Amino acid sequence: MHVGIAVNPVAGMGGRVGLKGTDGKVAEAVERGAEPRAPDRARRMLDRLAAVAPDATVSVAADPMGESAVRDAGFDPVSVVDPFGGETPDPTATTAAHTAAAVRAFADVDDGGADVGDEASDGDEPAAADPVDLVLFVGGDGTASDVAAALEGTDVPMLGVPAGVKVYSSVFAVSPEDAAEVAASFSRTERREVMDIDEDAYREGEVHPELRGVAHVPVADDLQSSKQTASGTVESLAEGVAADVRERDGEGITFVLGPGSTVGAIKDELGFEPSPIGVDVWRDGEVVVRDATEAEILDALGEENVIVVSPIGGQGFVFGRGNPQISPAVIRRCDLRVVASRAKLDDVRALRVDTDDPDLDDELAGWVRVRVGKFETRMMKIV
User: How far is CA 352 from the centre of its chain?
Assistant: First the structure.
């Protein structure tokens, strides 16, 4: 097996600082104190890959797009693709063009001097090794779109290690470790959709996924499906949860109310306008922080805290997709309440978490009571 590895070092940086994405917002994310997420996700995937496929042949993009991480995991890459023309840029200076140039080299694609390659390497195409059997990339939907475009017209499959804020495409594994397992064991591929959304519209609360491509993807149970919007009413659910929250007003309990339409209905029932796809903090009858960042949530927490979240329809993720502001540090200080419509739960086999903290993921695993109505609950398992 020959794997080509490319890491988008800025993927997901905007999440915990409340930007809902990083496309065009890297500088602002840095100003807000954002920390890189993708390198750690890459290391987790590579550590597992080294364990399950130690003899794998690896090509990799030059630093800051993965070379050091590959070597640290114990692999001696057969090819280091340099899309930077011999320079080593600051990670925040990497672009979609660099990703595309590296992927084309992995697949041994001759672009005939296309602009994207020239932009990435000042006119010199990166050196290509033998074509890879799989492109394994670390990033989000924007990175997936770049990889798919670079592989267009080839049969080379792609698989994503999820590191972005939004992950709508069905080309990603559930976790970094799962990506390594799939890469090491897949025997067939199928065509899957690459989706992305307009992040500016997303920040305003409008979610309009657009098809950006169709790619060959390894087939395995650990691949997630695209996000789907579940049908069904949440009015009675919202009424019941809001009533419970109001009963605790005056007790100093801090409620961290996650994003999404289901929890948004609870916010409406509490009498305030939800922040667009953001996290709001409520205590003693009023909004303490609206559209909060991770740091603002941590500052607002008290002695007793409760997170209210709803899983993503079609995927079942409770944490790790679309709500990175609710970080491991926040989760560890809160009790968890999961809410969902019956229709949403009918679309998922199990709930999932991907918090960036494997120990916390293990702690959260197991059976959890999900509120599905004004009074009704259903038991679901977090796997």
Answer: 13
Residue 12: DSSP 8-state: T
- Full domain range(s) for residue 167: 2-218
Are residues 24 and 99 located together in one domain of the fold?
Answer: yes
Going by pLDDT thresholds of 50, 70 and 90, the confidence category of residue 12 is confident
Domain match, 204 and 84 both: yes
Token couple for 315: 């995927």
Q: Omega of the bond prior to 64 within 30 degrees of 0, cis?
A: yes
Domain C-terminal end among 218, 245, 274: 218
The CATH number of residue 251's host domain is 3.40.50
For the chain, list the strands marked E by DSSP: 2-7, 57-61, 79-81, 134-139, 158-162, 189-196, 210-218, 254-257, 280-283, 286-289, 305-309, 317-319, 335-339, 352-353, 366-371, 377-382
Q: CB–CB of 9/94 below 8 Å? A: yes
Domain total of the chain: 2
Last residue of a domain, one of 218, 251, 267: 218
Residues 132-189: tens digit of each pLDDT: 999 999 998 889 999 999 999 999 999 999 997 767 788 999 899 999 999 999 999 9
User: Cα-flanking dihedrals φ and ψ of residue 95, to 5°?
Assistant: -130, 170
Contacts of 171 (CB under 8 A, 6+ apart): 144, 148, 158, 159, 160, 192, 193, 194, 215, 217, 223
Has residue 90 been placed in a domain? yes
- What DSSP assignment string belongs to 211-241? EEEEEEEE--TTBPPPP----S--HHHHHHH
Q: DSSP assignment, residue 132? A: P
Establish if 224 belongs to a structural domain: no
Query: Residue 218 corresponds to which amino acid?
Result: P
Tell me the per-residue pLDDT of 210-228, one tens digit each, with 9 for 90 and over. 778 889 999 886 666 565 5
Among the listed residues 47, 42, 44, 37, the one whose alpha carbon sits nearest the alpha carbon of residue 60: 42
Q: Quick one: 344 and 242 in the same domain?
A: yes
